[in-house]
Amino acid sequence: MSVLRFEGVWKAYPDWSRPPRTLRGIVTGRVPVLAGRRRAKRWALRDVTLDLAPGGSLGLIGHNGAGKSTFLRLAAGLSRPTRGGLAVHSDTAAVLSLGSSFDMQLKGRENALTAALVAGMTRREALARLPEMLDFAELGDFVDSPVRTYSEGMKLRLAFGVIAALEPRLLILDEVLAVGDLAFRQKCHERIAELRDGGTSLVLASHSLDEVRTTCDQVAWLHHGGVHALGDVETVIEEYERASIERTYERTPVGSSRADDEGLRLRENRFGSQEMTIESVEVRGATPAAALRTGDPLHVHATVRARDAPVRDPIVVVSLRRAGDQAVVFDLSTRADGFTLGAEVASADVTLSIQRLDLPAGDYALDVGVFEAAWEHAYDYHWQTYPLRVEGPAGASGILVPEHRWSIAD
Amino acid sequence: MLTTPPPFAAASPRGYAYAPVSATSDIERATGVAVVAPERSRRHLADLVLHLVRRELASAHRNTLLGWTWPLVRQLAQLAVLVFLFSKVLDLKIPDYPTFVFTGLIAWTWFATALTAAAYSVVSNAHFVTNPRFPTITLPFVAVAVPCFDVLMAMPVLLVLLGFEGRLGDTALLLPLLLVAQFAFTAGVALIVSALNVYLRDVQNVVGVLLLLLFYLTPVFYGLKNVPPQFHWLLRANPLTAFVNADRAALFDGRLPALVDVAIASGSTIAALGIGLALFRRLQPGFVDEL
Predict the structure, then answer these.
(1) Closest chain B C-alpha to A110 CA, distance in angstroms
(2) What CATH number corresponds to the domain at position A275?
(3) Dihedral (Cα; A46, A50, A56, A59), 10-degree rounding
(4) Of A5, A38, A176, B128, which sits most exposed with the smallest number of CB within 10 A?
(5) CB–CB of B36 and A91 under 8 A?
(6) Calpha distance B76→B82 (Å, rounded)
(7) Same domain for A47 and A140?
(8) Strands, DSSP E only, in B173-242?
C-alpha cells in the first residue's frame, strides 16, 4: 500500500524557449512538430524512484530548477512520465499555485464554492463545508465583497481553507506557505497537522528548511532532476546544509590577504560567491564597539547589493554567538519568518529589530549573511565579524537573563 | 562527497518489474484524469458544469444595467441591420423577412459565440486544469452551454413574432430536439478546437477567420433558394446549413425538416462528437505540460 509511487520516472520537456507553438513556427520549420521524438529534450526528472506510505509526509528540497515542480505535477497526476512507472492516489488534492483560481469580480463566497467544485466536491458537499472554509479564511465582512478587494493574505487563507476542507488522502503543496504572515502559516500548519492525524499524506516542496523540518518525516533532495538524497528528515537536511557550506567555501573567491576597512578577509571570516555582497552592517542600540546593557533593544541594519544582475529572492541571516564556547544564542533568517526582500533584488537595506535582548554580561559576536533563495550557497557571509559586548548585573550566568523578580509569601 | 542514505519505506530496487496496481489497490496509474467513485463522479460532473455555466453568466453580466438582456439586444441590433439591408437596400423578396432572418440568426449566433469561447476555454482556465480532480473535458461543454442561455432568451421573442404572423404550427414542438442536436454538434466541434488550441495557439485565430467567412456561407440572411444551384455544394459543405434549414422548416415554414437536412445534421453531429471526444481524450494528458 502506498499513496504515491515513482518507479524509475523520467520526465522530459521539449527543449525550446518559446512554448506556444504557432503556425509560423511550423511553416518556417523552427518548431519541428512532425520530428516528434527526435527533437531535443530537457530532462526535468531523471530516474526518480520513491514510495510514500499512507500517513507519511515527504518534503522536497533542492534549488530552483532541480525538478521540484515537475515532481509535484507528476505526483498530482497532472502530467505523464516520459519513462517509468507512476502510481498516484485518486483522492489527491494539490495547491500548485495558490489563489490564482479566483475570479476577481466575484465574491469570496462564490469563489470558494467554485474552488471547492473544481477541486472535486459535489455541490451539496461544497455548500455544507462552505461555512467552515469561510471561517478558516477569517474574512469577516469581506465574505460578500469581490475578491479584487482582498489582501493577498485573505486570498491565501480562502484558497487554503477550501483545500483543507477537502480532506484528501494525499495533499500536495508547492511552496504555498512561504507567503502569508506568521499567524496564517501557523494556522495552516495546525490544519495540516489535523489532516495528518486523520490519515492524510503530504508532499511539500519548500525553500524553508525549518518548515520541512517541522512538517515532514522524510525528505527527498532533488538535484538536476535526480534524487540526490532520500531519507529521514534530520539526516538529509543536515547533509544539505553541510553541502551548502562546502559549496559556499568552493565558491568563495580567493582574495587579498590584507583585510579591508571592516576587518573582512575572504576565506577567513568572509565567505560566499560575492554575487551579492553585504556592503555595511550597523549594530544600533550600541555602536559596534560599545556596550549594550542586559534587556536593551538591538537593531541590526545591513545593506546588501548585487554585484551584477539583480538576485532572486535572497535570504538574510543574522545570528549571535557567545565568545569563548561559540554557543549559538539566536539564528534568525528572513525566510524562516516568511519575510521577503523582493522577487528581484538589486540592493536593499534590511533591519532586524529585537525588542529586548536579555543576555547575561559578556562578549558576543554577530554573523551576518545573505544566501541564495534555496540555501544553495551563501552570496556573502560575515563570520564572527561584529563584536557585541553586553554589560549587566554581575553574577548572572547561563545563556539568558530573563526579566525577573523574586518575592516571598507573607 | 555524500553517502547515499538508506531509502525510506520500501522503495523497490531499480529494474523491478512494476506490476499494474490499478486492479489490486486503490491507487492507479496517472492518467491526468483521476477517477473517483462513478456515481459520485457523475453527480460531481453535473454540478460542476452547472456551476461553471452559472459562474460565467454571473461574471459576464456583472455591473451592467441591462444584465442578461445584453445578448438579446446585440442580436436584435444585428437583426435590424440585416433586415434594413436585405429588404430595403437589396430586396431579397422573402416574405416575413425579419422572422426569417431571426430564425437563422439565433442558431448562427449560438454556434459562433460558443466556438469562439471554446477555442479559449482550456487555455484561459489553466488554473482549473492544474487541479488534480478537475475534469477538463467539461470546459468546452461549458463554452457551448453558456450562449445556450442567450438562445433561451431570444427564442420566446421569436416564437411570439412567429405566432403573430400565424406561422407557428405543430412542427414547432420539434424545437427542443433541434436545440439538443445543435448542442451536440457544436460541442463536438468545440472539443476539437479547444484541445487543438492548447498545442497550437493559432487555432483561436483560425476559428475567428473561419467564422467570419462562414457567416456569409451559411443561409442566415438568405435562403438556399436565393443561391444559384451550381453553388449549392459550397453551402452544403457547411453542416450548419442543414441545422439552419431544419430550424427554419420547423419554426418558420411549419413543415417537417427535409430529409437531406436531417441526414446531414445527424451525420455531422455523430462525426463531430466522435472525433471531438477521441481527439480530446488523446491530447488531454499533455495539456498541463503545454499550459
Answers:
(1) 8
(2) 2.70.50.60
(3) -20
(4) A38
(5) yes
(6) 10
(7) yes
(8) none
| B32 to A56: CB separation less than 8 angstroms, yes or no | no
Q: How far apart are CA A61 and CA A219, in angstroms?
A: 7
- Chain B 119-138, residues with CB within 8 Å of chain A CB atoms: 127-134
Q: Do residues A98 and A22 make contact, with C-beta atoms less than 8 angstroms apart?
A: no
**Each residue's pLDDT tens digit, A101-158:** 677 777 888 888 888 888 888 888 889 988 888 888 888 788 888 888 887 777 878 8
Domain assignment present for A322: yes
Min CA distance, A102 vs chain B (Å)?
9
Tell me whether residues A87 and B201 touch, CB distance under 8 A: no
Residues A189 and A302 in one domain: no
* Pair A40, A119 in one domain: yes
Asked if A13 lies within 8 A of B289 by C-beta distance, the reply is: yes
* Tens-digit pLDDT profile for residues A243-276: 888 888 888 887 655 556 667 777 778 888 888 9
Q: Where are the alpha helices (DSSP H) in A342-385?
A: none
- Listed by number, the residues of chain A in 80-109 with a beta carbon closer than 8 Å to a beta carbon of chain B are 80-81, 85-94, 96-97, 100-101, 103, 105-106
Residues 199-238 (B) with a CB less than 8 A from some CB of A:
199-202
What is the pTM assigned to this prediction?
0.73
- Cβ of A90 within 8 Å of Cβ of B2? The answer is no
B76-126 confidence digits (pLDDT tens): 999 999 989 988 888 888 888 899 999 999 999 999 999 999 999 998 888
Residues of A whose CB is below 8 A from B50? 123
The answer to whether the CB atoms of A94 and B132 lie below 8 A apart is yes
**Closest residue to B12, CB basis, from A4, A49, A86:** A49
| pLDDT value, residue A262 | 66
Q: How many domains does chain A have?
A: 2
Nearest to A78 among B6, B59, B130 (CB): B130
Interface TM-score (ipTM) > 0.95: no
Q: How far apart are CA A167 and CA A273, in angstroms?
A: 44
Can you tell me the distance from the alpha carbon of A363 to that of A380, in angstroms, rounded to the nearest whole number? 24
Residue pair B60/B147 in contact (Cβ under 8 Å)? The answer is: no
Q: Does B64 touch chain A (CB under 8 A)?
A: no
β-pairing, A57-61 vs A218-223, is: parallel
Buried b (16+ CB within 10 A) or exposed e, A219-254: bbbbbebbbbbbbebebbbebbeebbeebbeebbee
Contact residues on chain B for A73, CB-CB shorter than 8 A? 130, 288
Q: Are residues A123 and A161 in the same domain?
A: yes
Residue B51 in contact with partner chain A when CB distance is under 8 A: yes
Q: What is the mean pLDDT of chain B?
A: 82
The CATH number of whichever domain residue A98 belongs to comes to: 3.40.50.300
Residue in B closest to A26 by C-alpha: B200
- Is A339 within 8 Å of chain B by CB? no
Residue A254 belongs to a domain: no
Beta bridge partners of A172: A94, A203
Q: Point out the domain boundary residue: A223, A242, A261.
A: A242
Give yes or no: residues A99 and A221 share one domain.
yes
Specify whether A126 is located in the same domain as A235.
Answer: yes
Pair A81, B11: CB distance under 8 Å: no
Q: Which domain holds residue A336?
A: 270-391
Could A117 and B30 be called an inter-chain contact, meaning their C-beta atoms sit closer than 8 Å? no
- Note the pLDDT tens digit of each residue in B208-232: 999 999 999 999 999 888 889 999 8
